[in-house]
Amino acid sequence: MSEDKQDLISQIKSLQKRVKELEADNAKLMSQVSKCSCGKIEEKLDGSVRDSTNSSVEGRKIETGGHNPRKKKVVERMKGTVNHHFKRYVALKVMYFGQRFYGFASEAQMEPTIESEIFTALEKTRLLVADKKESQYSRCGRTDKGVSSVGQVISLYLRSNLKESSTNNNSSREAVQGKQIEGEIDYVRVLNRALPKDIQIIGWCPVPIDFSARFSCLAREYIYFFWSENLNLLAMESAGKKFVGEHDFRNFCKMDAVNVHNYKRRVTSFEVSPCDMRFEGNQLCAIKIRGSAFLWHQVRCMVAVLFMIGQDHESVDVINALLDTERTPRKPQYTMAPEIPLVLRSCEFEGLQFTCSSDAGQALRVHLQNECQMYQLQAAIFHEALLSCLPLAKDQSLLKNGSVKKKVSHIPLFSRPTEPSYEERRAKLDSKREVEGHIGRYNFELKPTCHVPKLPDFV
């Protein structure tokens, strides 16, 4: 009986060994298939979306707002769809209006995002040469839900029409070098035909391979629009000037103690100025803030405190107190300014000169002019509706269910509850990780070193 048992164990080990060998062979074959860029597979794709530089008629077939998940899966499986083409590292300047998007970055797992729409357009136009990582994709700013931009910059490898290249024996694709523009794909025109109306490419520029849209950026400028109403603009500007310079802005942001450990940022300029627009005597104004980099929600937190100062709820000196993190290690709880009026105005780089063909530039101008006229028509309709409203009764008590809304009393910032400090957050994280480490070691000790299948009982 003992010999039968030993024989059975031997057979099981032999089968397990064979399974491992088959799994290794399977992985090897799958790797070879994933690298295949056979032209026959490419021909099976839907041919309705071609290079828009070759046919303006076919360019019109691209649906700007649509999404074909079946086609996307095919493109994702064919990782090297255009890996037999020349490629070029370029920077794209992007304009978008963020009202309907869940922010710029696609990592938030919420759709739609600006980034996901851009990559959908890149797939449709066959400009991608690889996935995000292999394309060396980077973005300058990661704007939040509802925030717009007229100067966002991204960089990545795209397909090129040029043949001059720097060959690399370790790569199946050849990268075009230099600043030549003539004869290149009209990236602006091609992409804008495939993008939705609220996302447009303004220009493109060839960049060196060590360029990063995030880390090569010298300065970013934000603009925040607001109606002046009864705000004290002089006090707001005086307070805003205190932001200029290098400070610890942990009390003016949403703290991310897991990933961010340095909260010092440099603001280079601050300005409050009127815009060329009024409504019933109310002046539209703008806050312009320029700096090397900004923290998560930093601008909206700064504007929120400035509004408190403009309403005479807080003194100008509250800025000094919040910037002094030794005196104020915990951020008082307050609501950020709304996201819709915030615009990423520009991202500045050394030596970059964005270009755009005359045809693409004219098409973009016509598109934006039409959008402006449409919104002005809508504003005129709303204004007419406003004029058609019934006049308010002088005596509010005569109105049925009428009541005068009580003015919400302001609670001073330093009388409010506070959020945990950075040190307290880190201590909590470290404690949690230590507990998880103990649990992991405990489970590892309980786990058997190998799995032996249950053998049948012998009589």
Give a verbal description of the structure:
With about 450 residues, this protein is an alpha+beta fold. Among the domains are: about 60-205, Pseudouridine synthase I, catalytic domain, N-terminal subdomain (Alpha-Beta Plaits), CATH 3.30.70.580; about 220-350, 2-Layer Sandwich (Alpha-Beta Plaits). About 35% of the residues lie in helices and about 20% in strands. The protein is built from eleven helices and ten strands. The protein has helices spanning about 1-35, 40-45, 55-60, 70-75, 115-125, 185-195, 235-240, 300-310, 320-325, 360-385, 420-445, and strands at about 85-95, 140, 150-160, 175, 200-205, 220-225, 245-250, 265-280, 280-290, 340-350. Strands 1, 2, 3, 4, 5, 6, 7, 8, 9 and 10 form a ten-stranded mixed sheet that branches. Helix 7 packs across helix 8. Mean pLDDT is about 80; it is low at about 35-80, about 165-170 and about 455-459.
Mean pLDDT: 82
Task: Please tell me what the overall shape is.
Answer: globular
CATH class of the domain at 62-206: Alpha Beta
- H-E order: HHHHEHEEEHEEHEEEHHEHH
Measured distance between first and last alpha carbons: 9 Å
- Annotated CATH topology of the domain at 62-206: Alpha-Beta Plaits
Strand content: 15-25%
Q: Spans with pLDDT under 50 lasting ≥5 residues?
A: 37-81, 167-172, 455-459
Number of strands: 10
CATH-wise, what's the superfamily of the domain at 62-206? Pseudouridine synthase I, catalytic domain, N-terminal subdomain
In DSSP terms (H or I, runs of 4 or more residues), the helix count works out at 11
Helix/sheet category: alpha+beta
Radius of gyration: 30 Å
The amount of helix comes to 25-40%
- Largest beta-sheet details: 10 strands, mixed
CATH architecture level-2 label of the domain at 62-206: 2-Layer Sandwich
